[in-house]
Design goal:
Length: about 200
Amino acid sequence: MRHCSDGRAVIHFRAAGVVLLLAHLLLVGWLTLRPLDVPWVTAANLRPFDGIRADLALGPGEAVRRIGGGLVLLAPLGVLLPMAGGRVLVSPWASLARTVAAGALLSSAIELGQTGVPGQVVDVDSILLNTAGVALAHLLVVPVSRARLRRANRAGAGDPARLTGESRAMRSEAPHEAPGEVSQGKTPTISRVGIAP
């Protein structure tokens, strides 16, 4: 992504992230908070890993479908939340922590919302699986994408190591600048003007 002087590329990138994020949240809301017409429902699961153990007891095919569904449901948030934020230069651990926390909060809100929806059951394992899916998607996609964007920005802005002769001369005239900073030229001076009586 090459930045324009007015930052239009960043705005387009963030806008796409926000639109995709809203579309995904609408889909998740429809899937998880719509009433289901079922003859009976299981009891709510408030003990961690009991639901996962029950899924594993159903056999490998059903376990993969149920556990995989829990991992995949909110996994796109791991990519869409940082995309909507639009930051390229950010600590990877801080980004992961913010994204996983947002995913856990959203999953908890969905589970709490399901308490009043007919046919839907609260399951603490859903929160664990949804949060793990967000973390995995973030770890697999976001660091690589940000590294590519940083490389593209450096290529678009010009490599600081390849300075022209003029900019090297300017940098040598300004020894007070930190290494890697490019001088913007000499500071203009204004001649003194007398004060009128």
